[in-house]
Write a structure and sequence with these properties.
- This protein is an alpha+beta fold and 130 residues long.
- It has three helices and five strands.
- A five-stranded antiparallel sheet has the order 1-2-3-4-5.
- α2 runs antiparallel to α3.
- It is globular, with a radius of gyration of 15 Å.
- The protein starts with 7 loop residues before the first helix and ends with a strand.
- 22% of the residues are buried.
Length: 130
């Protein structure tokens, strides 16, 4: 594409990338804020699921004393409509926690459905793929 000009694909990919980073990056010491950021990047039933399990999620996160940092390796639009897209994302994550030495990085492949929600694009579904 041309520098500085965002195509519709770019916008869907950017939203998927942001959502995946929010999903895979969590710091137990600021779990509330991290989880809220994740919820804010989701929409529909997917969002409701996170809101409903929020308490349990935070308990697990705090008990783990873990901090996970995610990076996006690669992403591409697999299918695109006017208001939604399926974006395939390859990401990596590193976990550090107080209980254990640094764990080896993990690789993730995700199929992320993003759709317009007002003037923003948010995640409405995430599937982990092999």
């Amino acid at each position: 594409g041309h520098a500085g000009v965002l195509t519709p694909e770019d916008a869907f990919v950017a939203a998927a990338n942001t959502g995946v980073v929010n999903l895979l990056s969590m710091d137990f010491s600021k779990g509330d804020a991290d989880l809220q950021r994740l919820i804010d990047s989701t929409t529909g039933e997917f969002r409701s699921d996170f809101e409903n399990t929020r308490g349990a999620f935070l308990n697990v996160l705090r008990a783990s004393k873990a901090t996970t940092t995610a990076t996006i390796k690669e992403s591409a639009v697999a299918q695109m409509g006017r208001d939604s897209a399926l974006v395939l994302v390859a990401a990596g994550s590193e976990v550090s926690n107080t209980a254990a030495a640094k764990q080896p990085p993990r690789a993730w492949r995700l199929a992320v459905t993003v759709r317009r929600d007002g003037d923003q694009i948010k995640m409405s579904k995430v599937e982990f793929v092999l």
